[in-house]
Amino acid sequence: GGDIIYSSRDPSRDSVSIEGYFYIEEKKLDYIVRKLRDFINTLPRWGIYPQEAVINTKKVEEEDWAESWKEHFHPVEISSNLVIIPSWINYEPEGEKITIKLDPGMAFGCGTHPTTRMCLEALAQAPPEGALVYDLGCGSGILSIAAVKLGAKGVIALDNDEKALQVAEENCRENLVEGQVRIMRGELPYFLRERDDLPRGDIILGNLSTEILVETLEDIKKISHNSSRIILTGIIASKIDLIKEKICKSGYSLEEIRYDGDWAYLKCCPGKGKNNGSG
């Protein structure tokens, strides 16, 4: 097994760097490299056409491994009033900034990924005061925690990954919001289709892959009402037309589109399928 814990893009070179750790015997390294190369060769199936990839490896001593991955994480200022802080860093916020302590658990980020950041920015710009929020694909729980700290009365957080749920629970405890975040395990869209006991939310956050969003849009109607605000990220920008078409066919009114590099963010609400978004 292993964890991919860091990625970055160099706009000047149009390249992406991904760093991961594998807990394996050294004799299995060649096998892992071959599997990575095989995976890279399958990317064109998904519409991704990379140039020749360079794979570098380095042995990390076991005593260094437990701490070395933390070097990549630093405090992240999302807006003038919201800061994400890795839990192991001592940080004194200025003024009345809202802080979120986060332990990404080696497998999650600290709010730097464009999809997460766009969601956080939307919450900070229009705080969910008194709202019931759904966090679909909650991961580390960062959006759930931010929603509560920005005024939400409660959050229902959903993920299908056991490790994600464990990290989310710990992060909620660390930020003293565990009583306001209900963490549930389930796979979309089936979880929503099979449940009839879920309350309707005022804000629906969906930081999900394009494919899962397409499958889940109709089912989001079960947990939303006429004035709900629906925020969707995790969308590859090149597939934005597919999502826009599905949103309109599903009866939503598209209100806003934002882009950050290769990623897109959409805000919509239940309506008559109008396309008011630009981009």
TrEMBL record:
List the protein's name: 50S ribosomal protein L11 methyltransferase
User: What gene does this protein come from?
Assistant: prmA
Gene Ontology MF, one: protein methyltransferase activity
Q: Can you tell me which residues the record assigns to a coiled coil?
A: none
- Organism of origin is Candidatus Syntrophonatronum acetioxidans
Q: Which UniProt keywords apply?
A: Cytoplasm, Methyltransferase, Ribonucleoprotein, Ribosomal protein, S-adenosyl-L-methionine, Transferase
Q: Name one GO cellular component term.
A: ribosome
To which protein family does this belong? Belongs to the methyltransferase superfamily. PrmA family.
| Annotated InterPro entries | Ribosomal_L11_MeTrfase_PrmA, Ribosomal_PrmA_MeTrfase, SAM-dependent_MTases_sf
Q: Which Pfam families match?
A: PrmA
Can you supply a Gene Ontology BP term from the record? methylation
